[in-house]
Amino acid sequence: MVMERATLKTMQLQMLVAIAEHGTLIAAAEVLNVSQPAVTKCIKELEARLGVQLLERSGAGVHLTRYGETLLRRARAVIAEIVSAERELDEMKSGTERTLSIGVSLLASAIAMPDALRAFRERLPDVRLNVYECLPTQTTDGLRDGSFDLCVAFVADGDVTAEHRVVPISESVQVLAVRRDDQLARETQLARLTCARWLYNHTRDSLPAFWRELCGDRVLSLPSHVNVCTSQRLYAQLAREPGTISVWPERLLQEQIRLGLMQPLETDACPSRLTLGLIYRRDMVLSASFEYFIECIQRTHSGNV
C-alpha cells in the first residue's frame, strides 16, 4: 500500500511537469500515453491532498498558480533524481562507472576547469565525463532538468540561486578596461562615464547589482547603453571597439594587457567581485565521483579563496 501511494505521487508529479511543459491537458495526456480524464482526475486528487489550487484553466489552455509553480520546481527535481538513480543502477548492472555531467559557464571555463579536470582524470580515469560549455542561464536550466549533475560558474549578487547550493571556490576582482590608448582612459570619474558604451560579461539581470556595487554610497544612473556578451572570443573583440568600457575578471584582463590590446581604466569606482562557485541542486545525492570532483576543483583553487 505504501509503495502504491508513492507510485501515485510520482505519477501526479510527472503529470504536473508535463502540463507545465506542454501547456494543455490533452498534450500532457498524449505525452504520458494516458487519457485526458486520467490526467484531470490525478491533478484534482493532488490538489485535494495538498489543499491548494495548482492549475488555472482558460480558453487558451492551463497555467500554473503560484502554488503550482512552487511544486513544479520540486517535482522536476524529484523526477530528475529518479532518472539519475535509474541511470546509475543501469551503469552498475552493466559494470560501467557512473557518468558525471558538468556544465561550465563560458567565462569560467578557461579559469576554473583545466587543472581540476587533469587531477580528476588522474585519480578516476574510468569515470565518463560530459563537460558542456554554456551560458549562465543554461546552467540553472540544466541543473533543474537533470542535464547537469553540477555546474561551475561565476555567480553575481543579482543571480537567483535559491533552489541550488553554491559552494564558493574563489573570488575574482572585476576590472574596468578600455582599448589601449583610447581617449576614455583619461577619464577618472565614474559619473562622467555613464553616457559611454559599456560591455558587460554576465547576465543582464545581474547588471543593476553590479552597478550599485561600482557606485558604492553614490546614486548614479545605470549607463544607457550596455551590451551583454558571455562569449570570451567575441567579448575580447567587442571590447576593443573605440569608446567602449568593458568589465573583466582581473586574471583574463592580464592576458589582454600583456598582448598590448587593453588597458585598465583607473576611476573612482568601488571594487566589484564575482564569486566562482560550484552549483548543484540542494536535494542532490552526491556520488563518489561527484564528491571527488568537488575536492579536485577546491584543491586547485585553494590559494584563491
TrEMBL record:
Task: Specify the HTH lysR-type domain's residue ranges.
Answer: 8-65
| UniProt keyword terms in alphabetical order | DNA-binding, Transcription, Transcription regulation
- InterPro entries, alphabetically? HTH-type_LysR_regulators, LysR_HTH_N, LysR_subst-bd, WH-like_DNA-bd_sf, WH_DNA-bd_sf
Listed SUPFAM superfamilies: Periplasmic binding protein-like II, Winged helix' DNA-binding domain
Q: Record's family?
A: Belongs to the LysR transcriptional regulatory family.
Q: Which PANTHER family match?
A: HTH-TYPE TRANSCRIPTIONAL REGULATOR YBHD, LYSR FAMILY TRANSCRIPTIONAL REGULATOR
Q: What is the protein name given in its UniProt record?
A: LysR family transcriptional regulator
Biological source species: Paraburkholderia solitsugae
